[in-house]
Amino acid sequence: MALALLGGCGSSQGEVSASTRDVAPDGQRRDELNTQTVTIIAAADTHVVAMSPTTSFGSSPTMEVDRSPESEAYLRFLITPFEGTLTTARLRVYALDGSSDGPTAHDPRLDGRNWNELTTWNTRPPPANNILASAGAVTSGTWIELDISDLHISQNAYTDVHLRPDSTDGVTIASSEHPNAALRPQLVLTVESAEDHPPHRPTPLPVSGPPTLFNASADTYVSEAAPGSSAGGTSRKLWVDNGQKREAYLRFSVQGLTETVQRAILRLNVSDEGTAGGPSVYAIQGGWNESSVTWNTRPQRVGGVLSYVPFLSPLGTVEYDVTDLVRGNGDVSFGLYGNSTTPVTFVSRESSSVPGPQLLVWTGASRTAPGDACLTRREIVSTTLYPLHDTYIDQYRPDTTFHREASLKVDTQPGFYSYLDFDVQLPPGQVRRVLLQLYALEASDRAPRLLKSVPFDPKETTWSHPPPFVNEVLADAWAVKKDEWVEYDVTAIVTTSGRHAFQLYPSSNDGLSFASVDASREQILDAAPRLVVVTESAPFCSYRGTQPAGTTTWVKQSNRPEAERAIHTAPVPDGGFAVLSAVEQTQDGPYSGAETDVVTLHRADGGVAWTREFAHPGVTFRKVAVTTLGNVLATGEYSGAPDLGKGPLPQGQGMFLLKLTPTGAVDWTRGYRSWSQGEDGPEDNIIPVYDLATDAHGSAVVTGGFWGHADFGAGPVYSGKPRPYDDEGPNSFVLKVQWDGAYQWARVLAGQSLRGTQAVSVAVDAQENVTVGGWAAQGTDFGAGAITGQGPFVARWSVSGAPLWAWLLLTTYGHYADVLEVGVLPDGSVAFTGNFDGRFTFAGTSYASLEPDDFYDGQRDALLGRLSATGAEVALRRFQDDRGRSLSFGSLVVDASGNITTAQSGWGRLLGLGSVGFPEDVAPDRPTLAGFAPSLATRWVRVLDPLQSGLHLAPVGDGVIATGTLTAPFELDGTWYTPRLRRLDLLHVKLRP
């Protein structure tokens, strides 16, 4: 293994030696988890003795810790700066004279730090009773190592530790004045980081059943050295290498699958020849026959590498993930291409003693489209459990614990064994599979065996005191690639709730390590070990209402190789829809990495008409809208001076607005800056964009927030907030830009509160009036004068920006309420969603949340309301159960008939049509869609499988489009949808109105 180490002893002032890092030349052995060992020598120490109450011993080369005569020791270390996360701290003192029961380390807290090397028994600090660790028996001439990781340790500060006796058989230890500097007290810190660690691969999809196995229907290899030979088709070995240029080809006939493929694994048994540079697996194209194909007639590889594992040992086994190529029934072929001049051989299908190439295919659980009134279905539920604790033991450090470190080591020489302990509470439903998943930090020719173990105390688990050995092998794994998940099927053993412990037992002297649970807890690596429990629920109603309203017309899935997530969607007048998405710029890159913003125009049947990509640093698209002529408007934030197609935007930070033609060409772009006046001149501010709408003439109406000043086209305006700092929220604006990009009008909504006025949603009606909803602070002026209260608001302005009316739901201090979304009905009335905690009156009816007077932290109730075309209160519904729990509204849209559709997170049973969906305590926050009549009466409710985030809605002529981000297998109407590359895809569902 190649853990980076920073070792050595510092001076008595606590200096730390320079960092070093070992990097293996093949690029596979480097452990990207950077582990440093920082050793700090005591800056001061002393001991005090009761029998010499006025004597100081700060200059003594030794220290005594004993009960007879009574004595105790104090140590102080200067913690110099380091980079990374401190995971363990170990105090090491050298025992010159041993003991049957060594000292105990104590945290002195603040009072115990009042000492120096002149301290005596009479002037000693108060006794410390905060135990950190005890030594036990100590042998003379050995190091005492105490795990004091629970001690609070700060950089650029002193850390104190007290040693107190546990017996009359005391110890004598070397002090910082000892003539042998190598024996002086040490504080050894383990510091770990993963700043340069590549993003971890996505975890395997949690398939719910066993695989279907297919044996190769044809296999062969060809050689450049014998370009006309087809002898590979009858060979019992498949040779692959990059020296003699030999390639192998495999074909499988996949038949009989009735559900969508969720995972596919190519399994090969290595023959007599192994390699440290295993081949890559590719898709191939071109016809071939194993009895006649030669080097000269061989098929060609296409696309990128499907899978690759470097270290392959003779007579071992390797598995390649080929899910991206196996999409259903039919013939599928693979090519194996060498990466090393060292040949490797695989067992072919002609072998009679060892299985040849196999393809293992997992599909979704068998499903049929529900035909009953409530669309009864079962859900496959994946529950992820993390260890209570994990650790490893080290043969060469037999008395040291490692339960706080960021990795779990497994090796035969030197001996490293790892252990994991889970407290499993099996969820309701039929358990289909239980999978242990570990993230490999290094590659190896053989993953460890998984053995059953017993629950253990990590603070006591060492090589000298391991958990009792249980000789029961649960599972094997094969060759492992670095930065990949290793999966063990433990379904047969995890059959009941309770503690379940496992041991990782090495199968190879080519050791490796896995990310530990502490790597995740300390935010070093988000790749903790996990148990994934896959269950199948009991049948439940997923729909309430009168069909066909809310039922499915069609489903479309995006098919980009890069991860893609949904941002926003909008209707197109011809029945199509536009989607704004973000796509990773590097395939398999980190989720937080650079993304390309993509605008996609879909036809009415869901097909793609065109896409337009914007891969600009510092640019983030937020909203999209489509005009009556089919032009596409988009808005978002920017920094710098990006060129979105019509020249650079104004240098600085702010908001952009652009227009695309019906064919996707950039027509015009506009940039709007925000700034504050600083001591050295103007300072740029961001402009967060909230919403976007359009009118019958193709104008754009944008709402957002800003601090300081901004110029929207008619000269600088002031936000009422000088600059962003601490929790100071921005005030808002409403901006209207006509079809050609020219300024029409703007309204600044400036409130006098820390939060600021927030205009979060906008809609435009048939008369081109602009309706905005959100939350208003005291002092906000909608056009008729500053308001004297605060609370949720809906306001309307005419086509020219003249104020028409404003509705405000006054809330008192300590109570919360918000308007989240607004939509306009055909008669000009307004539907809105929101939430509240407290008391209020609407249309003459009083409302109160479950805990209305529990200021600040009471449960919020969801609201769906309606105002007339003049702002009068018409109707309101609030949603809450008897325990104060409620749903969370997301998107709201209104169709041409005035019907309202909302997307929300869970709690469909609160919407008034009875029980629907999986119980919230088992499967919370399921995507839920609901349809309401103009009167706000519930028409239908539908609950879907989980998606990554909320659904984005777009009303089209004959239904509603719901767009979400697909991250796991998703079943709808008996069909499974699985994300490509186990990453992120878009899923578009069209529902009937």
Automatic annotation (TrEMBL):
Q: Name one Pfam family in it.
A: CBM96
Region Disordered: start and end of each range? 1-32
Annotated ranges, domain Carbohydrate-binding module family = 37-190, 213-361, 383-521
Keywords for this protein = Secreted, Signal
Q: Subcellular localization, per the record?
A: Secreted
**Major place of residence:** secreted
One Gene Ontology CC term in the entry: extracellular region
- Which spans does this entry mark as compositional bias, Basic and acidic residues? 23-32
Family annotation (InterPro entries): CBM96 (IPR055372)
Kindly provide the name given to this protein in its UniProt entry: DNRLRE domain-containing protein
